[in-house]
Structures are given as C-alpha cells and as structure tokens.
Amino acid sequence: MVRASNEAVIKVRDLVVGFGDAKVLDGLSVDVFRGEILGFVGASGAGKSVLLRTIIGLLPRRSGTIEVFGLDRNATSEAEREGMERRWGVLFQQGALFSSLTVRQNVQFPMREYLKLSSRLIDEIALAKLEMVGLSPDVGDKYPAELSGGMTKRVALARALALDPEIVFLDEPTSGLDPIGAGEFDDLIRTLQRTLGLTVFMVTHDLDSLHTVCDRIAVMADGKVITAGPIPAMLASEHPWVKAYFRGKRSRVAAATAAQNIG
Ligand SMILES: Nc1ncnc2c1ncn2[C@@H]1O[C@H](COP(=O)(O)OP(=O)(O)OP(=O)(O)O)[C@@H](O)[C@H]1O
Ligand SMILES: [Mg+2]
Fold it and tell me: What is the pTM of this model?
C-alpha cells in the first residue's frame, strides 16, 4: 500500500506521560501521515489508550511535544484548540455512547456542541451518518441498551464522523465483535478512509485488522514506539515481542501453516 502523503498530521516527540511515580509513556515519538491508517499495538497496559487520550488533550503530559495539524495545543489559544478538536472524531474503548440519549441524539451531540445549524439540518445529517455506517434510519430511535455490540460500534463511528473529521481516533473498534462482524467493520473503516480521505489512528489487538486494514503498524513497548512500518516489516522483525505477536502461536503465519498441514 502506498502512503497517501508525507505530511505528518500528528507529530509526537519525546512524549512523557505518567501517573504518580509511574511513567506510562517515556520518550515516545511517532508520526501519523495524512491519509494513512496507522495501527497501534502493544501489550495490555502498554499505554495505547493513554497515548490516544493525551493526543486529544484528555490527559496531561509531563514533557514532549504533540502537534496535530501543525499546532501544539499547549501553545494555542482556546479558539485554536476548539478549531483543532472539530477536525477529529473519536471512538473510545469504553463507554462509547451516552445511555440516556437515543442513537440519533448521540450522533447529533457533537453537532449541537460545535455547529450552529437548524434542528432539521442536524436531523438530516445524523441520518446520513447512520446510513454511512450501514445502519437504517429506524435505528436512530433506539437507545444504546437496545443495540448489539456491532451496532454500538457503528453508532459510535457515526458519532465520530459527525463533524466530517480529517482524523478519526479508534480505540479497539472491533473488540467484542464476532470475526464476521469485525471483518465487516474493518471493511467499513477502509471504505470510509478511502472515500473520505480520512487519517485513521487505530488501537487494535485484532491481527486480522492489522493485516487487512492498516497501512502501517506502530508497536509500543517500554513507553515508546519501538518500531513502525508496514506488515512485511513486522513479519521480518527480530524484536522478541514483535516476533511473538506477528509470528507466534496465534498469528496468521501460524494459522496458515496449520491449515497447510491439515490440507
Ligand atoms: N487515569 C489513569 N490514572 C492512573 N493510571 C492510569 C490512568 N489511565 C491509565 N493508567 C495506567 O496506564 C497504563 C497504560 O494504560 P492504557 O489504558 O493506556 O493501556 P492500553 O495499552 O490501552 O491497554 P489495553 O490494551 O488493555 O487497552 C496502565 O498501567 C494503566 O493502569
Ligand atoms: Mg486501551
């Protein structure tokens, strides 16, 4: 796959983030290029969600720089920061939707917060976003508790797309879905990325997603991105964690070998 651009829409340098005495991120640097889908992997607790939350400004950093669209939020005005935030959408790992709001109201939420549009227009846009993620209009009247896991993810994606973002942050978008549902969600992300020209920051444990959706993969360990590159580079890596993950017992390589042995 060809990288869409050399422009780093997200540029992180020497980032340090910690809680109490513990440093979770310790000198992390990474670039996310415009138009690419960059997958972040790493052991549970490696700091993937912390990195995502720090980039979007929900967690403070101890040191280092983070530029999104060429701006560092620590050196911007309130208005500039709001301008940045309107240009991205987020699908969080947990608590994806507001349980007291209908699906439609959930999708409309960012629009009501940031855009001054008539209710009618906001209604129409919300329906269009639901359609974009493959949901029928009647889903709009349901409450989150009435949705399946896959539908919940789609609604959360629709909400992340509400403001026509340039970047979407996805934290484990396919976790909890069955393999077919996960595959469909991967296709959806790929299609949206292609048609909308999105840049996608995706945290995932899903090896299928990594193989089929991501242009590049960034591996996190020891508070850093220890290596980043496309799948062939991951398969060639001799780093013990990378090797275990991509060529270990549960990897695709192992599955393919097992299938050959059966056949
Ligand atoms: N708000 C917080 N306060 C204190 N510690 C935190 C906070 N958020 C995260 N941590 C800690 O930071 C570390 C990294 O957490 P993080 O959620 O980023 O892991 P992760 O890589 O996303 O893991 P997983 O794959 O399980 O989602 C963990 O040790 C976690 O306990
Ligand atoms: Mg996480």
Answer: 0.92
